[in-house]
Amino acid sequence: MIYHFTQLPTPLGDRAQGAFSDEELMKMIQARSADGLGLLNDRYALLIKSISMQILHNDADTEDLLQDVLLEIWNRAASYDSQKGKPLGWIVTLTRRRSIDRLRRRDTYVRVENRLTEELKAGAEHWSHVYEDMALHDMGKYLNRALAGLPKAQRNALKMAYHKQMTQREIAARTGIPLGTVKTRLELGLRKMAASLHGQEDLIGASRRFRLGEYNTKATASTLATPISG
Question: Against a cut of 0.85, is the pTM above it?
Answer without folding.
Answer: no
